[in-house]
Amino acid sequence: MLGLMQSQQLLISTLIEFAERHHGEGEIVSRRVEGDIHRYTYKEVAVRSRQVANALDGMKLQFSDRVATLAWNGYRHLELYFGVSGTGRVLHTLNPRLHPDQISWIVNHAEDSVLCFDMSFLPIVKAVHGRCPTIKHYVAMCDADKLPVDSGIPGLISYEAWIGAQSSEYKWPSFDENSASSMCYTSGTTGNPKAALYSHRSTMLHALAGALPDALSMSARDTVLPVVPMFHVNAWGLPYSAAMTGAKLVFPGPAMDGKSIFELIEGEKVSFAAGVPTVWQMMLGHMQAGGLRFSTLKRTVIGGSACPPAMITAFNDLYGVEVLHAWGMTEMSPLGTVCTLKNKHLTMSPQEKMLVRLKQGRGVFGVDMKIVDGDGKELPWDGKSYGDLLVKGPWIISAYFKGEGGSPLVDGWFPTGDVATIDAEGYMQITDRSKDVIKSGGEWISSIDVENIAMAHPAVAMAACIGMKHPKWDERPIIAVVKKPGSDVSRDELIAFYEGKTAKWQIPDDVVFVDAIPLGGTGKMQKTKLRELLKDYKLPDA
C-alpha cells in the first residue's frame, strides 16, 4: 500500500520560489570586487535568477550541460546557484586557488560549456582559455561599462548585458530530482582531482538537515556570513539553507582579511558565521591587537580542518561566541557532523565541555557512521577504539564523475580516509588521516603532485612529500629528497624549481635531504617510517 500524499520533485528551483513568496524582503548584502557594498532582496534574486535561466536557454545549452564559475562569494554567484541548476544544467564551481594547469585539466574533464568569472580572475581565464576547447561562452561578472576592451578573450560579454536583455518571466521545468545539480572537484584524493556530482535531491535534503537546530540552526532571525567560499562544496550548503529559512545573507567578496571580515560582521550585525580556522585566526589577531569585541555574533561553525583549542577558548571565553566544530568532505556535500552539546553537557565544568567541543561532533540526521579495523570489522563506540571512518547517507557520494577511480564504496559505505574514535554519546573525533594528502588552511595538497615536480629535477633520485604540523595552516608540506650520485642541488634551488609549476600555497615549505627513503616489500614508500625518522623536525616558520 502506497501513501496518499502528493508527489513533488525535490528541486533547487523550489527554494528560490519559496524564498520569493515567503520572505522576498529578506536581504542579501555583498561586498563587490569593486569594493562597494551591494544590497538587494530574495525577491530580486528570484527575478534575476529567472533572467539567468532565459540567458542560458538562449545559448542553446542542453540539459545537464556544465556551467562553470570562477567567482567569490557574492550576489551574482548566488543567482547562478539557482539559475543554472534550476534549468537542469549543472553548476560547476572552480577553485581559483589552483594552478592554471590544474584548472584547465578540470574544465576539460568536466566538459564545461560556459565560464562565468569575477574580473579579479581575468588573469587566470587568460591563462586557461586557449586550452579549454569545450567552453563556448565566457561571461565576465561585471557591469557592461566595466568590461575591458582588450580582455584577450574572444566573444567576452558582461554578466549584466547577458541577463539584462532577458525576460524576468520563466517557468522552472520539472524533472527527476535525482538529476545532477552541481559538481565540485576534490584534490583530497591521490592522482588527478575527482568530481563529486550532487543531485537536486541530495542538495535539498542536505539543506534541510543543515538548518536543523542541532546542526547549523539557521532561521529567519539569523544574519549569516559564509566566509567559506562558494567554490568550496557550495559554501557548505549555506546559500540553500538560507533561502529555505529566510536568513539574511552577507557575502564578503574578495576581502578575506581579518579587518574586513570583522568590519562586515559588525556593520551588518552578523549573528552566525562559517569558515576555516585560518580565517578566524586572522580575525582574532586583528581584534586582540585593537581591543575589539563583537556586538551581535553569537555562533560560528568552524570546519575544513581541526579547530585549535585556543581558538575555541578565545571565541567562547573572551568574546561569548559559541563554536560549532564541524566535519565533512566534498564527497559528503559536505556536512557530516557538528559538535553541538547535549542537555547533559550544560552543567559540566568548562574543562569538561572543552573535551567535548574538541571533537568533530555527532552525525546530523542523514549521515550514518562507523569505524572499522584493518580487516573491516566494526569497532565499538567507546571513545578509545580508533579505526577507519566510513559513512553513508543520501547526500554522500556513490561514485565519482565519469567513474574515475572505480567504485569508492566498501559494502555500501564510503571510506573517508580518516582515522577516528566515536564515543558512547555518538561524538566522533578525528585522530589521524590514512591518506597521504596534506590539508593546509582548509585546502588539500596532493603529496603525489608535489613529489612529481621534485622528481622532474635532474639532480633528484627520489622524493617523498609529507605534511608537518603548523600552528596556523594545520599542516604544511615538506619534501624529503635523495640526490642522484654525483649531482647536487640546494634547498633554495629546489624550492625555486616549483615556481610556475603549481600554486604558490602548494609549494613545500622546506626540503630535507636524506640518504634514503624507507621502502616496503613492494617498493612503495613507507611514509610512516619517514615521519618517524623526522619526528624531531620543525618547520622553519612554525
Q: Can you offer a commentary on this structure?
A:
With 542 residues, this protein is of the alpha/beta class. Among the domains are: 26-255, ANL, N-terminal domain (Rossmann fold, 3-Layer(aba) Sandwich); 438-533, GMP Synthetase, Chain A, domain 3. Helix content is 28%, strand content 24%. It contains 16 helices and 25 strands. The strands form four sheets. It has a 13-stranded mixed β-sheet with strand order 2-1-11-10-12-13-14-15-16-20-19-18-17, sandwiched between helices. Helix 1 packs across helix 3, helix 1 runs parallel beside helix 9 and helix 2 (42-58) crosses helix 3. The radius of gyration is 24 Å and the shape is globular. The N and C termini lie far apart (64 Å). The model has no long low-confidence stretch (mean pLDDT 94).
Produce a short descriptive summary.
This protein has 542 residues and is an alpha/beta fold.
State the helix count.
Answer: 16
* Order of adjacent strands in the largest pleated sheet: 2-1-11-10-12-13-14-15-16-20-19-18-17
CATH architecture identity of one domain: 3-Layer(aba) Sandwich
Radius of gyration: 24 Å
Mean pLDDT score, rounded? 94
End-to-end span in angstroms?
Answer: 64 Å
Q: What is the CATH topology of one domain?
A: Rossmann fold
Name the overall outline: globular
Task: Please state the structural category.
Answer: alpha/beta
Strand segment count: 25
| CATH homologous superfamily heading of one domain | ANL, N-terminal domain
Percentage of residues assigned to helices:
25-40%
Largest sheet: 13 strands, mixed
Low-confidence stretches: none
Measured by DSSP, the beta-strand proportion falls in 15-25%
| CATH class division of one domain | Alpha Beta
